[in-house]
Amino acid sequence: MARHHYLPLSPDWSTTAPKWRTKEMWIRMALGTMSVLNLYLLWFWFHPIVPTPLDDYQTLKPSLKLSAPILHPSDNSSRAVVTTLYNDLYTTPVATLGHSLTAASVSARRILLYIPGRLSERSLCIVRAVGWEPHPVAYIPPPHAGKGVHWRFVDQYTKLNMWTLDTLGIDRVVYLDADTLVLRNFDELFQLPFTFAAVPDVWDVQFKLGINAGVLAARTSSDEFRNMMRQLGRARFPLLEAEQAFLNLYFGAETVRLPYEYNGNLVIKERSPVMWAAMRDALRIVHYTVPKPFPKVGEGIVEGERLQKAIRKAKRAKGKLFETEIGWWEQAHEDMQRENRDALASCSALA
């Protein structure tokens, strides 16, 4: 058998390299850095972040008075605040949201859309205790067999069922995500003479023209819903953003853009603390996008130490940037528990 002869390593091989090796290493590092920089610049060339006046918001007005006077509709039964609950995890946020509607004297029915078989009896009992009317709806799966959709958004198309509430005699709705909290009355939204209205979205890097689907004001129509279902599979939109991207496309030519006070996305405070300070006293609805004062993953109804741990974590986020706003939610939750103690106690024995 042929033997292979290997040259021995230099005694100082691990600490000393030839000069040409050192030079080659630096050249490779420089070329690698230039390649990464070129890719970064190329991405921004095709995906430029165009600054808007809001990205450099300046306080130019002594105060912000953004809303029209509150108008109370004569027939409250034809108006509804709508939210969704797809599993027990968000039961506590939905209950807290329901209580905040009462505290703000919002004059409309409260309809909770849920998928039969997904919620425990105790969860349904809790949401009823604070005034929600559970309304079972069919699950609407993501188009294209869910390809490209974020796993947390696979249920979100089901919210489109709110357009069918005309079958319950409801002609105007204000939809609120479960991670919102009502600070002040917004009855004027039920009087809007438009088909669809929402607040522009905000990301941590820029303000957006497209809307955020966490707060929506809409006119119900089963005919509109059926057309949505026909178009959902053929529409071209970013699948990762789920129903929000679809609604941006579907109502793109007619969306009325509402002031930020109707969807006080916490990202605004991170993106523009000056704007947040200017609008804080006018906020109608605050949206706990990041951080949330409750777990966003897991199972079961969140309460007790599990909830308190999430609240403490949220208060510490971003160097305690949102401590005050998390405190708003915490206080609303405590008020909800205290003011509905007997009704909530009756739910304890249910599974």
Question: How would you describe this protein?
Answer:
This is Glycosyltransferase family 8 protein. This protein is an alpha/beta fold and 351 residues long. The chain has one domain (76-345): Spore Coat Polysaccharide Biosynthesis Protein SpsA, Chain A, CATH 3.90.550.10. Helices cover 34% and strands 15% of the residues. It contains ten helices and ten strands. Strand 1 (79-84), helix 2 (91-103) and strand 2 form a beta-alpha-beta unit. Helix 2 runs parallel beside helix 3 (121-129), helix 2 crosses helix 9 (323-339) and helix 8 (304-320) packs antiparallel against helix 9. The termini are far apart. The model is unreliable at 6-15 (pLDDT under 50).
Determine the strand fraction and express it as a percent band. 5-15%
Largest beta sheet: what is the strand line-up?
A: 3-2-1-4-7-6-8
Order of helices and strands: HEHEHEEEEEHHEEHHEHHH
Helix content: 25-40%
| CATH structural fold name | Spore Coat Polysaccharide Biosynthesis Protein SpsA, Chain A
Shape by Cα distribution? globular
The end-to-end span amounts to 76 Å
Structural class of the helices, strands and pairings?
alpha/beta
Q: What's the level 1 CATH class? A: Alpha Beta
CATH architectural designation: Alpha-Beta Complex
Query: Average pLDDT, to the nearest integer?
Result: 87
Largest sheet: 7 strands, mixed
Number of helices: 10
Organism: Auriscalpium vulgare
Protein name: Glycosyltransferase family 8 protein
